[in-house]
Amino acid sequence: MSQSTPVDPSVQVAPTSENASLLHGGQAAAAGKTKLIVLGVAAVAAVGTGIYFIAKPSTASAAIVAPVVGDGFNATSTTTTVSPSTTLSPVATSMTPVVSTTTAAVVAQGPPTSDPEAMTPALTLLAIGDWGSTTGKQWGVAGSCCHVYNGQVDKNQPRYMVDYYSQNYVATLMAQSAVQLKPKPARIVGHGDNFYWNGIGPADAAYRFQETFEKMYNQPELAGIKWINVIGNHDIGGSSYICGEQDNQFRECASTDEMIKYLRSHFDLQAKYKSPNQDRWVMKDHYYVERVTQNGVTVDIFNLDTNHADSHGARQVCCQCYGYSAKFGVSNANCNNVNGGDQQCMGGNVDMFNACMNEIEAWATDSYTQALRDMAASSADFKIINTHYSPHHHMAPAKMQKWYDLTKDMGITAWFNGHTHGFSHDISTWGTHFFENGGGGGIYTDSDSATNNGFVSNKWVGAGTPYGYMELSFSKDWLKVQFATFDKAWTFGGMDMTKTVPGGIQRGHCWYIPHVNATGPGVECKASINYAVGAPLR
After folding, report:
1. Which pLDDT tens digit goes with each residue over 285-329?
2. Is the whole-model pTM more than 0.90?
3. Among 247, 261, 262, 505, which residue's beta carbon has the most beta carbons within 10 A?
4. Class in CATH terms, 36-331+361-524
5. Would you kindly state where each structural domain of the chain is located, as residue ranges?
């Protein structure tokens, strides 16, 4: 297919009243970002901009044994792929219950006896979410970077000085981490939303990969590091039209068959991409396992498709409300609330809407089924999940409980997700840690919110609206997770990147998490910082 010259997106973000400061220090209140928060109480109520659901805490066992992995010294990679999702029986409203035929023995073992502060990492990773910004900033097209007013960057909010080229700045930080972490990171784990606003099409895929991936992360320090990726909602249409050849020119689908074709194409264009830089882009399927073994420690990364989530997930993707709102000349302010049958939801075409929902639900069901099998068989020292959504921040009770039970029954060490453009750390009653990690520079950041719902308790929320990512360091006994952002030496140049003076890394919240054969919540690092660091602040 011939390619036309890509057109840079002109979609703009609605202005807000948030004020910004580039100061370091102080606290900031959580922004009013829509989330689904699941509470362990017998009530359902709308509170603020979130919805609080009831769910019953599971009585399942809290610790799972996995076989001890053998020693090894060279970093290796094993990728497990699955059959196409078209072989599945899709379910539109809930995940199909699956019973594992493999069970793990339950033990009551305490935490490791070694001192985590004295650990020597055997391997390291970087983890980043929501990183793929729009293009055209050099021509003044703000795109996903910034708050705008009347179609222009809102310079009344000083945070634009950081926001405008935030993806570039985070890439610079990641290169610094790659030098400072020992050993060098073996993988970069990406949580999705790789291409704002609405994903890529056949006509702009090559251009977008070159501009916002290859050129953006071209630092020598990052050379040779594989990127382990999943998709987010903005990779498969966001809330705009699904069909068409490139972003900013996507259009209304003419039929259900065409809609399914382009929905799958959004994913396939990323999954089939081959990076010219040491083949570093990895997205084998909607679900796959990436095994990393180095210096006697093995980590299994279970990559899941959770785009069936209830907060800005399948319903918003399938409704395509922003596209239909423009078609019918109505406000898109209510797009979070439209549903199948509404004029702003796929033009009122219920059959097409259900077909889209079934397709995305099938991806999630397949991820769950495959993960249940592979997690039970895993002999890794650490089992981590990489996906776009959080069970308690972005899912209603049935879906949340299903994923909770999987992490509990399979002894998952940690769950990493993006979607919310902020940072937080929650610990479950059964020992799985949940990290929200969605401020990678693809879109302007928000403040996150704390969750204490009877299943998880909050240990940290990234105050202000910082950008950054997580550094993961593994020994045989411990996983160290630490937030990384800008230090005070940075000077940001706004829309003129030549005026930016790079600084270094400010490390913040930090936690040691025990390996899969141990129990307990772990321990906070002595060097952990829980107050506001980085930039911008509110």
Report:
1. 999 999 999 999 999 999 999 999 999 999 999 999 999 999 999
2. no
3. 247
4. alpha beta
5. 36-331+361-524
